[in-house]
From TrEMBL:
Protein's recorded name: Sulfur reduction protein DsrE
Keywords linked to the UniProt accession: Signal
SUPFAM superfamilies, per the entry: DsrEFH-like
Origin organism lineage: Bacteria, Pseudomonadati, Bacteroidota, Flavobacteriia, Flavobacteriales
Gene3D superfamilies hit by this protein: DsrEFH-like
Signal peptide per UniProt: 1-21
Amino acid sequence: MKNSILIFTALIMLFSVGSQAQDHNPKKNNYVVLTKKIPQLKPILITVEELQKEDGHHFGDFQIIVCGKTVKGLTDKNQIQGFVQQAKELDISLMACGFSLNKFGVDPKQIPSEMDIVENGILYNFQLQKKGYTSIEL
């Protein structure tokens, strides 16, 4: 009987220490948005600001991938530069889909240097979802 009580007490202590360790290692909230329209960047960036406030120290990574025919607009510095600057200020990633750039004949050198290019935006989005990112496609 004494052994049962000791084992039971040890198990309770073990589980309580384990749950406390989880409290000190909070999960980060990571997000990815796949968009096919440059004008949608404005509401996406507003959403980033709100999520940063709402999530606080739980806010992790936020990545925006621009895919489809709209990648042509990424070469228009007047149209895209404000979004690129705001993304930089918010410390988030703004990317272009390399597959879309190729399909629509856009020279990657004309994309703002602050933007990364992923080989396949749809595949990249799925890969981030596998890592636990919350995802939405617009």
